[in-house]
Amino acid sequence: MKLKERLKKDFRLWARSLSDLFLKRECVCCGRQLESFESGVCTFCLAELPSSYTWVSGESPADKTFWGRTSIEKVTSLFLYNGKYRNLVYSIKYGGNIRLGIRLGRMLGEVIAEEDIDYIVPVPLHPRKKRKRGYNQSEVIGRGMLLALKENNPAVKMETGLLERKNFTPTQTRKDRADRWTNVRNAFRVNMKRAVKLSENGRVPKILILDDVLTTGATLDACATLLHEAVSCRISIATLAYVP
């Protein structure tokens, strides 16, 4: 490690230790006070992260969510959305924990680092909701994924303007399976100018649609269906968490 980089790292640890004297930094999962070298989630909770292992097989329960629907090549989720680990998503989505979103996004990117991906396409928020929240959590996760994927594929890009949310739909959190599908029906549209550019020179782009949580797959299926209708492409899906 270069001297400059080591000094920066030492300064960050020193600053974090100093802040611990005045601000209580807690693990978002278990509430344990974090050590100076920890950020967002403690080492113990991270070590016990309930991995989904969806990247091991193409016939995981997550993959089966989309069987008989739109053509999806692979579905990958980093961890199972249960117990205290729900707090990870909540902290990123509603708590403004950008750093944690990037960190977990990078972990997600590392498990699919060998996949052939041209574009990461985050599920968009309606402009009104994005203004209120200040960011799109899927884009934040995508930033972390890019850090991992670019190590093997420097050409991979994040395309945030390909899909647009045209309707302001209520949150999906408290809706049942049928209501979720009704809620997202006709909620999105494809920016055709951007779609055409993706397939220039006769290319068939490999698109990875990215979201925070996979539950019924309604939102992701709606996005994938529109993209297949708009342009010849290969589509995979990735989410931080999967609801078993």
Number of domains: 2
Return residue spans where pLDDT drops below 50 for at least 5 consecutive residues.
16-22
Strands ordered across the widest β-sheet: 1-7-6-2-3
Number-wise, the strands total 7
Can you give the helix content as a percent range? Answer: 25-40%
> What is the averaged pLDDT score?
88
CATH class of the largest domain: Alpha Beta
- CATH names the topology of the largest domain as Rossmann fold
Count the helices. How many? 10
Main sheet? 5 strands, parallel
Query: What is the element string, with H for helices and E for strands?
Result: HHHEHHEHHEEHEHEHE
CATH architecture of the largest domain: 3-Layer(aba) Sandwich
Strand content: 5-15%
Rg of Cα set: 19 Å
Distance between the termini: 42 Å
Please identify the structural class as seen in this structure.
alpha/beta
Morphology:
globular
Could you outline the blueprint of secondary structure elements for this entry?
Elements: H1 3-20, H2 43-47, H3 61-64, E1 75-80, H4 86-93, H5 98-111, E2 119-122, H6 127-133, H7 137-149, E3 157-158, E4 163-165, H8 177-184, E5 188-190, H9 192-198, E6 206-214, H10 218-230, E7 234-242
Parallel strand pairs: 1-7, 2-3, 2-6, 6-7
Antiparallel strand pairs: 4-5
